[in-house]
């Protein structure tokens, strides 16, 4: 069971690294597109009709992927009043319950995000020749990542309880976010 838990954590860490790499690329693209829009608008006096909309869609993707990465790294704000005062045996149950709630939220994102994709399938962006499916795809992708990270955390906590407290290559990542 320990080996299975280590393999799950390895895959979980790999998914996180890919997500953070994509977030970095999206942030870079967003800054470049917004900067290009500013240069064209205020220096060349010839506005780009698509720069603001593309920057907004990149920001939506960045936010959704960043939220999933934040859930994996546990860097979202949390209220620890109950968790800090309960006995250790109940603390694990409370942690599992919290992960189940996040997993449930991810399922809702996947289900209703999929419905949004069906609704927006024929719509196109205002100033870009792209389907609105691409911006809305960020919702079910974020949900799938939330489900994945939460399910791995729950599984590992029961397969090998000490495996999650091991030093991770990604442990320092949350300090820089």
From TrEMBL:
Residue ranges occupied by any Tripartite ATP-independent periplasmic transporters DctQ component domain in the UniProt entry: 30-155
GO terms (BP aspect): C4-dicarboxylate transport
This protein's UniProt keywords: Cell inner membrane, Cell membrane, Membrane, Transmembrane, Transmembrane helix, Transport
Pfam families: DctQ
Lipid metabolism found in the keyword field: no
Annotated GO CC locations: plasma membrane
Segments traversing the membrane: 20-43, 55-73, 94-113, 133-156
Compartments where found: Cell inner membrane
Function: Part of the tripartite ATP-independent periplasmic (TRAP) transport system.
Family statement drawn from the similarity comment of this UniProt entry: Belongs to the TRAP transporter small permease family.
Database matches in PANTHER family: 2,3-DIKETO-L-GULONATE TRAP TRANSPORTER SMALL PERMEASE PROTEIN YIAM (PTHR35011:SF2)
Name of the protein described by the UniProt record: TRAP transporter small permease protein
Organism encoding this protein: Caballeronia choica
Lineage of source species: Bacteria, Pseudomonadati, Pseudomonadota, Betaproteobacteria, Burkholderiales
């Amino acid at each position: 069971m320990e080996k299975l838990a280590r393999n799950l954590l390895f895959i979980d860490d790999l998914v996180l690294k890919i997500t953070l790499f994509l977030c970095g690329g999206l942030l870079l693209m967003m800054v470049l597109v917004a900067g290009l829009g500013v240069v064209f608008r205020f220096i060349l006096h010839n506005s780009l009709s698509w720069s603001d909309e593309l920057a907004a869609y990149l920001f939506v993707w960045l936010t959704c992927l960043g939220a999933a990465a934040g859930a994996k790294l546990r860097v979202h704000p949390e209220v620890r009043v109950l968790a800090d005062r309960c006995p250790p045996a109940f603390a694990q149950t409370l942690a599992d319950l919290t992960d189940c709630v996040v997993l449930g939220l991810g399922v809702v994102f996947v289900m209703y995000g999929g419905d949004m994709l069906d609704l927006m399938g024929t719509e196109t962006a205002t100033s870009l020749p792209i389907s609105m499916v691409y911006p809305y795809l960020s919702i079910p992708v974020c949900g799938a990542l939330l489900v994945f990270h939460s399910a791995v955390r729950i599984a590992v906590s029961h397969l090998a309880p000490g495996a999650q407290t091991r030093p991770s290559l990604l442990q320092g990542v949350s300090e820089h976010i």
